[in-house]
Specification:
By secondary structure, this protein is mainly α. The chain has three helices and two strands, in the order αββαα. GO terms for molecular function: cytoskeletal motor activity; structural molecule activity.
Length: 121
């Protein structure tokens, strides 16, 4: 399978920026290296910082769900009548599912990282 590197890179750029086409981007192929011209689309770090923020928010959300579950467990154990066993079990199940999903996402990231590191250059 022969993939044109310039075309693939251009598609990835346009997808990350939400554009259907790259306007004003010039790419030159020099052997196996890509050199971008002066009019290449900037701000790739902006999208990575947004992804990092999104990932951080997701982990913080899972942490909040686990804290809420822990608080309901403690309240139920202490005899708080406003917290039922059903509420406690539902909160515990939500926390478990959220944590399992987070672990699966982490596993996929590690798997992708290993695959990228094993790619020939």
């Amino acid at each position: 399978m022969n993939i044109d590197t310039n075309s693939l890179y251009a598609q990835m750029q346009s997808m990350s920026l939400g554009n259907s086409s790259l306007q004003g981007a010039s790419f030159e192929k020099m052997g196996n290296n890509l050199a971008m011209g002066d009019s290449a689309i900037p701000a790739l770090n902006k999208s990575t910082s947004n992804f990092g923020d999104m990932l951080k928010d997701a982990v913080n959300n899972v942490n909040d769900i686990q804290k809420e579950s822990g608080a309901k467990k403690i309240a139920f154990e202490m005899g708080d009548r406003s917290v039922t066993l059903a509420d406690t079990m539902v909160a515990s199940a939500k926390a478990g599912i959220a944590f399992d999903a987070t672990v699966q996402v982490r596993n996929k990231f590690v798997e992708a990282y290993k695959e990228i590191m094993n790619m020939p250059v």
